[in-house]
RNA sequence: GGAGGGAUGGGUGAGUGGUUGAAACCGGCGGUCUUGAAAACCGUUAGCCCCGAAAGGGGCUCGGGGGUUCGAAUCCCUCUCCCUCCGCCA
């Protein structure tokens, strides 16, 4: 959520930055609503002040055993007025809140301005796409041929956009999770956390998925339970309604979780293979930072994620998202895109964002410097990285002419020394 | 799922309708004393919102929401969470 006072004092700037995101009108009639709300509030509060005063006077009279019936009559009158003004103030407040909840974050000044992904800016590349002396296959052909991946039985037991892994395929998924967690905890200073995969709606509101994006989520019927679309949701909410000490920051967490996404509205997109699934596993990085350092923390978080791909020898590039491509809660985002030989293009495998105080305001995440007044901290998150997409990137990038797949050096200890996937029966 | 008990400030914990936003203790901060520290003593110590340039003024908050009342931390209803016992269960 944007800061109410900041919006009030910088209306034209805020409108302009939102327009850069492609949303010139989200603020609607903010000024009127804001003015009305404050006027109604003042009406109600001045009556309350009067009521408190009279209440004391009644108490004093009663103590002296004197007659208070005139004042009590006035209190009755006041009570009625207060409920009327309260109702008006509540209605205005509710409208303003509903409006503000649906307004996305403002882009940082360093974000390239543009209407969509075509304006994204490539920052750097790592690695050279491999030259194949044969026609590289897609993972959806390689996996089933190796006997480690099965879409048909997954469709039978769950539906489209699910997969079943067998043998070394399942083990590769687990190896990747362990490799990433070990790297981030041992070399990058993150603390591992294993959160619930189901959360309540307040938690989803805190990170910005609700109220606007409910249709992207899976909801458990009959309860206020939702499947998490990313570990960012439970981990960022860990300190909701708490005040942390400034010296405790930055806090750095990494979490392995399954992620569940309805993928509503993506019909026909990435229908083949593992690219877009209803369930996938991911190692997520989350940081709680001082506002002063959050952009440095974004750079280091992005590097931490990229290190995973470097160690695995996967060619990739870093892209700064343009204003029009930014996620709802983010002020600045770098995507990591891994090279996929089958499609001959770079594909998103990680998304690293600085949400500044946007989520902190929604989730009431604060910190305090010494005795000073508490402030909202900055939250960051990024995939470190998506495991399913890494799995398929390894198959495609390390495939051999005979259909086998070489295993990157760093993963071999996690796979019992295995250096090559060869066709296996399942 | 059934029965019972609970939720008060950073912590422990008093408080059953009217100067209680809240005793006391602990902790924190400042000070006195001390070469320094400890101890002792004194003082201080919630958050949010509205008006205001500021000084200041006002409002709300005793788990959340609703109700009773002139007035609610205190009474009633409801939801959430925690604890104990029973059942079920990885």
Structural class: alpha+beta
**Broad CATH class of the largest domain:** Alpha Beta
Order of helices and strands: HHHHEHEHEHEEHEEHEEEHEEEHEEEHEE
- What's the count of strands? 18
Q: State Rg.
A: 27 Å
**Biggest sheet record:** 8 strands, mixed
Number of helices: 12
Shape descriptor: elongated
Low-pLDDT residue spans? none
Task: Describe what this molecule looks like in 3D.
38% of the residues lie in helices and 20% in strands. By secondary structure, the protein is of the alpha+beta class. It has 2 domains: 28-101, Serine-tRNA synthetase, tRNA binding domain (Helix Hairpins), CATH 1.10.287.40; 117-421, Bira Bifunctional Protein, Domain 2 (BirA Bifunctional Protein, domain 2, 2-Layer Sandwich), CATH 3.30.930. An 8-stranded mixed β-sheet has the order 1-11-12-13-16-10-9-4. Strand 14 (365-368) and strand 15 (375-376) form a beta hairpin. Helix 3 (30-63) runs antiparallel to helix 4, helix 5 (139-146) crosses helix 12 and helix 7 (167-186) packs across helix 12 (387-397). The two termini are 50 Å apart. The model has no long low-confidence stretch (mean pLDDT 92). The protein binds one RNA strand of 90 nucleotides through helix 3 and helix 4.
Itemize the secondary structure elements and their pairings.
Layout (H helix, E strand, L loop, with lengths): L3 H6 L1 H10 L9 H34 L5 H33 L19 E6 L12 H8 L2 E2 L1 H6 L6 E2 L1 H20 L4 E2 L5 E2 L1 H7 L11 E2 L4 E3 L4 H5 L5 E4 L5 E10 L18 E11 L4 H18 L4 E5 L11 E9 L4 E10 L3 H6 L1 E4 L6 E2 L1 E9 H11 L7 E2 L13 E2 L5
Parallel strand pairs: 4-9, 8-14
Antiparallel strand pairs: 1-11, 2-3, 5-7, 6-7, 9-10, 10-16, 11-12, 12-13, 13-16, 14-15, 17-18
Helix pairs in contact: 3-4, 5-12, 7-12
The structure holds one RNA strand of 90 nucleotides.
């Amino acid at each position: 959520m944007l800061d109410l006072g900041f919006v009030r004092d910088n209306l034209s700037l805020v409108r302009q930055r939102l327009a850069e995101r492609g949303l010139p009108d989200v603020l609607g009639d903010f000024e009127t609503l804001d003015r009305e709300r404050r006027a109604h509030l003042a009406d109600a509060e001045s009556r309350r002040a009067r009521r408190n005063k009279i209440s004391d006077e009644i108490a004093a009279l009663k103590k002296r055993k004197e007659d208070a019936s005139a004042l009590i009559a006035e209190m009755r009158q006041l009570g009625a007025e207060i409920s009327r003004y309260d109702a008006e103030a509540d209605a205005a407040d509710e409208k303003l809140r509903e409006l503000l909840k649906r307004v996305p974050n403002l882009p940082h000044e360093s974000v390239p301005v543009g209407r969509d992904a075509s304006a994204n800016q490539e920052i750097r590349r790592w690695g050279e796409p491999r030259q194949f002396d044969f026609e590289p296959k897609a993972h959806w052909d390689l996996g089933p041929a190796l006997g480690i991946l099965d879409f048909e039985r997954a469709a039978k037991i769950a539906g489209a956009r699910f997969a079943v892994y067998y043998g070394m395929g399942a083990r590769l998924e687990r190896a990747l999770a362990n490799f990433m967690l070990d790297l981030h905890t041992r070399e990058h200073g993150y603390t591992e956390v294993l959160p619930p995969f189901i959360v309540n709606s307040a938690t989803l509101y805190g990170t910005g998925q609700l109220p606007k994006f409910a249709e992207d989520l899976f909801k458990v019927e009959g309860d206020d339970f939702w499947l998490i679309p990313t570990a960012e949701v439970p981990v960022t909410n860990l300190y909701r309604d708490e005040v942390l000490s400034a010296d405790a920051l930055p806090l750095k967490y990494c979490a392995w979780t399954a992620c569940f996404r309805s993928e509503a509205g993506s019909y026909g997109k990435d229908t083949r293979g593992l690219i877009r699934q209803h369930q996938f596993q991911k190692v997520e990085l989350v940081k709680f930072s001082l506002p002063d350092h959050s952009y440095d923390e974004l750079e280091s978080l992005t590097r931490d994620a990229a290190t995973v791909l470097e160690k695995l020898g996967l060619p990739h590039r870093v892209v700064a998202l343009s204003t029009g491509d930014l996620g709802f809660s983010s002020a600045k985002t770098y995507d990591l895109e891994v090279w996929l030989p089958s499609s001959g293009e770079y594909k998103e495998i990680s998304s690293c964002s600085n949400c500044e105080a946007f989520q902190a305001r929604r989730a009431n995440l604060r910190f305090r410097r010494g005795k000073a007044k508490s402030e909202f901290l900055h939250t960051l998150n990024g995939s470190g990285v998506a495991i399913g997409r890494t799995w398929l990137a390894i198959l495609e990038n390390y495939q051999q002419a005979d259909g086998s797949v070489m295993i990157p050096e760093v993963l071999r200890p996690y796979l019992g020394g295995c250096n090559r996937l060869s066709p296996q029966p399942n």
